[in-house]
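How a chain folds remains the central question behind the approach discussed here. This step matters because it turns folding into a mapping between discrete strings. The sequence in question and its structure tokens are set out directly beneath this paragraph.
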Amino acid sequence: MQIFRAKAPLRVSFAGGGTDVSPYPEERGGAVLNCTIDKFAYATLEAVPEGGGNASVESLDYNLNVNYERPADLTYNGELDLVKAALKILRPQGSGPHASDGLKLFLHSDAPPGTGLGTSSTMAVALVGVFQHYLREPWTSYEVAELAYLIERDELGMKGGRQDQYAAAFGGFNFMEFSEGRTVVNPLKIRPEVTNELAYRLLLCYTGTGHYSNDIIERQQRSYTEKRGETSEALDETKKLAVRMKNELLRGNLDEMGRLLDEGWQLKKKFTEGISTARIDELYAHARAAGALGGKLLGAGGGGFILLFCDFARRAKVAKAVQDAGGRVIDFALEPNGLQTWSVRSAA
């Protein structure tokens, strides 16, 4: 019996986050610069031919082991809804091949949801990937990302943008452009010496609190649709900044990239209320005082991880400063690959 596996990388967003959240990209076009890191969401699928069509799911992150025997069991109630939506969208229906297979899913992530690293969307991509391998579907990276978006945004109604699904599917450094009905992913070829320098100068610091992005994103959407000037202007400037930062990265001007991170963080706080907190401001102030050139909170806001950009010689001092202030520095490396799938033979 074959077992199918998938892993998809989490991401850090450098600039443009928020401009990928509808309706802004449909009306004015969005742009995002991001890259993936060596933290992953994993999905394993074991199929039992003619297994009655039931599905069992074990989630290490939520410490849950659940069995779904009937369609009615897939009602959304806040417990593993992402998995239920994936089963509804991806699982073959009717009397076709695999429709009566019993499924066993095992899921876990290197980072919990609510940390700003795109964990939920990345898990959606891993689920699409493991079903793609199991069903032998020839989906492109674009199609994988769009299916993950469909599961999260359309089926479940979860608020958010598009960059996370595309980052997880493609991997590496990408400059993404979003408009109505169209997404273009531009992979960036960064010189090895620039990648090595950047990897050393970035710090990932956990603030100690998570966030619930739905509420913050809903407020941002409401502020934009109500044509509040500060929100629209901040989003417009954020999009321009993403282009500027992409150009500085390609040129290898990393100090300027660090300064632009700070500029982007100041703009992000104008999207809506609740993006920063006193705790986040305190950690960021300690990092800046110790020598960080810039940084930003990852994700929608309210908690999670802060990405800091340091002077090469002051990196250790910045790390100590944020740890002394109660933050937690997480080791990571840049990851060049996107979604990966494979299969193994069961020992049973």
User: Anything to note?
Assistant: Residues 20 and 163 are 7 Å apart (CA to CA). The chain has a mean pLDDT of 93.
